[in-house]
Amino acid sequence: MSMLRDLLLPFQSAFSDSRLGRERAQWFPFILLAIMVPFTSSMSSNLLRSLQTLFGLDVNARRFYLFMASTQLAWDRLWPIAWNLIPSPLVDGRLILALDDTLNDKTGKRIFGCGFFFDHTAKVNHPTYPWAQNIVMLGLLKPIKGRWACLPLGCRFYHRQKDIAAGKINVRRHGQVPVFQSKMAQAAAMILPVATHFSGHSPLIVCDSWFGNNGLWKPLNAAEPSIHLLSRLRSSTVLYAEPADAARTAKGRPRKYGDRCGSVTELATSLREQAQRHTVQLYGKAREIRAYDQIFLLKTLRCPVRVVWVFRKTQWVAFFTTDLTLSVTQIVEYYGARWKIEAGFKEIKQEIGSARSQNRTADAVTNHLHFCLLATTLTWIYADRITADPKRRHIVKGRTSFAFSDVRKLITDEALSSHFLGLWPHLCQPPHKSFTQMLMRMVA
After folding, report:
1. Residues in domain Transposase IS701-like DDE (predicted)?
2. Residue 144: strand, helix, or coil
């Protein structure tokens, strides 16, 4: 049995046994394949051409577009199937999840999810408030063949509260205006099902300082106390010592916090000389850092946290985690791996081609994004399951590990082989081999 077929077949169980359900169950894995194969961008029209040209499927265009904009695709049942396919999702006995949001720039006005969102990364020649979709994404961080990777686990479209209050067409789904949800509420709604699915393991949420506050921590801690946060500390945050034993035994209500230790910036100046040297695996290399760690109390989270200052020549950065069992090297390495969700956004929007989508309606836009995210996850699962490391096709100075495009090349070789297409005798009519090779050389 083909490894690629083993990854795709389980998704067919999510469809009904009706005539239409069986047809959709046959199309679903090949749509994922058409996205993973770097033949062209993942626009719906190009996916239809890929199904017909590369895999020889007899697909009616009208029925295909209706399927891509279907209201019956149960992503709540499809995503757990992908979660079950991930080999060894734990790192040091923990489930490490990355959380962040991104903007997907668009040009059309009647596109679902679009609005004028603030872009804090905008360059000088780009607008500060571009017309774009704001996507909140949750991903799994794990090492694959010696390098970190981010596997998407779910997403949400964020709508501004004033757009919902105005009833704008860009937020409507089936004519109905949704109830406003903050990014924190959307993140918690994605994290809790994943934590329930991988029950028995402590999830660690790695996020930047925007998400690393009580807005996310409070609903997560109330629903699942085993969930922990790892994030950066703002330089103005004030830290407190734990209350002394004498303060706990004194008359009256015991003190919750000890003495004020100072802000993160003030402590960084006084603690620099006490920093110790540590060796960490960061960005693919073994690096030596100077760091100092101590347990403090945060009034914003109302709990003890381990704070780590990492000192450079003239600068420093501070991290905190609610998981007090983490070591300094683990904190630095896990937060360094968070950058892979940023690389994942580039893979989804540029390499997979989600940014080039021309869909307009709510269901079509949502389905297309989920297809792209799921295809990205399956690509990394494929890389994790193969025996040999993928060879890097394009040499880049300072990089020895394989790239996302190298894995897609391996998937392409297997997906277009006669061995794989021969496993679908009643569905596929493979095109002439030389014609397929010519097409793939054109896009390589």
Report:
1. 22-284
2. strand
Nearest to 269 by CA among 318, 213, 322, 208: 318
d(CA 95, CA 195) in angstroms, rounded, equals 9
Q: Are strands 202-207 and 94-105 parallel, antiparallel or unpaired?
A: parallel
Structural domain boundaries, residue 281 = 231-325
Q: pLDDT (tens digit, 9 = 90+) per residue, 385-394?
A: 998 888 887 7
Residue 106 lies in a domain: no
Half-sphere exposure of 90 (CA within 13 A, CB side): 10
Q: How far is CA 65 from CA 48, 79, 88, 167, 367, in A?
A: 9, 22, 36, 27, 11
Q: Is residue 217 part of a domain?
A: no
Query: What is the helix, strand, coil percentage profile of the chain, to 5?
Result: 40, 25, 35
Q: Of 399, 401, 402, 421, whose CA–CA distance to 410 is shortest?
A: 402
Instruction: Give residue 91's pLDDT.
Output: 94
Residues linked to residue 396 through DSSP beta bridges, in sequence order:
399
Q: Residue 98 domain-assigned?
A: no
List, in sequence order, the alpha helices (H) in 229-361: 245-249, 264-271, 328-337, 339-346
pTM of full prediction above 0.85: yes
| Residues 76 and 366: beta-carbon distance below 8 Å | no
- Give the type of residue at 25: A
CA–CA gap between residue 12 and residue 5 (Å, rounded): 11
17-72 tens-digit pLDDT: 888 888 888 899 999 999 999 887 888 888 998 888 888 888 889 999 999 999 98
Burial class, 387, CB count within 10 angstroms (exposed 0-12 / middle 13-18 / buried 19+): exposed
| Contact between 15 and 21 (Cβ < 8 Å) | yes
Share of the chain above pLDDT 70, in %: 93
Determine the angle formed by the axes of helices 75-85 and 362-385, rounding to 10 degrees.
10
Residue 283 lies in a domain: yes
The single residue listed with the structure tokens 């020549």 is 313
Q: How many domains does the chain have?
A: 2
